[in-house]
Design goal:
single chain, mainly alpha, 434 Repressor (Amino-terminal Domain), 7 helices
Length: 132
């Protein structure tokens, strides 16, 4: 599934209109429409904001499992320490900074995801103990 199709599917599942998603992401409704039709692709930053608004990892938008993406980011982060990307091409300081910000965002997203998961487990336990 293409990123635009995934954005549309997730938006509809959330019960959001294009305009509502656009407002949350702070972009135009036309941009959301363009992404959904596949006439334009969102930047990494916009894709990240859309994913956050739809409460999914960025990897879901591009059709990859979040754990696979997280593993790739960890590997990329290790390479950044030596100034190389995944394919071992040298990268400049600006690219390193951009990649580190994406990695940091993904780490924070993963942490939030795990916190929500454990809160759900705790709430489930509490609900079960409250029943007679």
């Amino acid at each position: 599934m293409l990123i635009g199709e995934m954005i549309k599917q997730l938006r509809i599942e959330k019960g959001l209109k294009q305009k509502e998603l656009a407002e949350v992401v702070d972009i135009s409704r036309e941009s959301i429409g363009n992404y959904e039709r596949g006439t334009r692709a969102p930047s990494a930053e916009i894709a990240s904001r859309i994913a956050n608004a739809l409460d999914v990892p960025v990897g879901v938008l591009i059709g990859e499992d979040a754990d696979v993406i997280f593993s790739k980011l960890i590997e990329l982060n290790d390479g950044l320490e030596n100034g190389f990307s995944l394919n071992y091409d040298p990268i400049d300081k600006h690219e390193q900074t951009l990649l580190r910000s994406v990695i940091d965002y993904m780490k924070q997203s993963k942490q939030r995801e795990m916190e929500k998961y454990y809160q759900g487990l705790e709430q489930g336990r509490k609900d079960n103990t409250d029943k007679p």
